[in-house]
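Worked example 3. Consider a protein that binds acetyl coenzyme *A.
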Amino acid sequence: MRVGILGLGSYIPEKIVTNYDFEKFLDTSDEWIRTRTGIIERRFADETQATSDLATIAAKRALEDANLRPEDIDLIIVGTNSPDTLYPATACLVQDKIGASGKCGAFDLQAGCTGWVYAAVTGLQFIKTGAYKHVLVIGAEVITRLMDPTDKGTYVLFGDGAGAAVLGEVEEGGIIDFELYADGSISEHLVYPAGGSRKPFSEEVLKERGYYTKMNGNEVFKFSVREISRISKKLLDKTNTRLEDIDWFIPHQANVRIIQAGAEKLGIPMEKVVVTIDKFGNSSAATVPVSLDIIYKEGKLKKGDLVLMVSFGAGMTSGAMLMRW
Ligand code: ACO
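Given these inputs, the predicted complex is written out as structure tokens:
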């Protein structure tokens, strides 16, 4: 059975935050951010929006694109690191907001920025086994709320957004194969320290600003460049795919220097690489489905195109998926 994407949708909030906006309260500059990260601007959710709100808009657009109704969905998986609340799962809130309450299963999946790739691979299994027909897989984040506005090393990197895909049986093309990976021994490089069972919120957490992300940027950078090429090569070897046959390479959008170095190590020319970080920053689990939706809506993605998607993030996790459109 071939399983592929029946419909795609995304939503990026309207509020644009430029590098110049950060110059007003951080010891940074447009020049530094542009040259060190490739980011020119990013989008922030407005105060009334949480992750489920962004995810819902993307999900409705994906359903419309697939020409399906909410009740046609058998399962909703939301890959996120910034759920509305620790529980209930954001996927349950999305289920309600799209009008599918009580009609299907719904859960969140937390795999750092690799969340959407993990969610898509998980959804794929439910369909391949014949258990379900349609699975809605979403990558959604209001990740900027977990970043410290006084930390120039993290705050300037992130943006908010959501991307959604409806997976189901297709006649041609579809998901060819995947690779998932994690190395928990280096998880300390990217952590949201407080609010879990290890360190519940307290006066101490407030003092330490433990309610904001702590990142060792250099280590994340090295892991990411290594993983882009390692996991991609593994997947290409496994599927007997030649690098030159890839039409579109969609890497997680964390830093344009990571993308360029990863692409160079892999040996894929930048003309085939989708870059959206300049406009949207790093929206964590949302960057891959949003980027895929952008080339789809722009009409660049053609039937029969071979697409390689690769992501990496907290955990530290990485994942790749090869698909024929
Ligand atoms: N503006 C100005 N200076 C800055 C800024 C800033 N926004 N941020 C850091 N600096 C300074 C540092 O303080 C340091 O100064 P010093 O030399 O005086 O101590 C200097 O820049 C160099 O710091 P480095 O960390 O070496 O800078 P680097 O070139 O590595 O860039 C960055 C830092 C952008 C964070 C980079 O390491 C990176 O992108 N890492 C990966 C981040 C990432 O991908 N995170 C998320 C992935 S997973 C996920 O998405 C959840």
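Take a moment to read the result before moving on. The chain has two domains: 3-171, 176-324. Residues 3-171 form a domain with the Peroxisomal Thiolase; Chain A, domain 1 fold (CATH 3.40.47.10).
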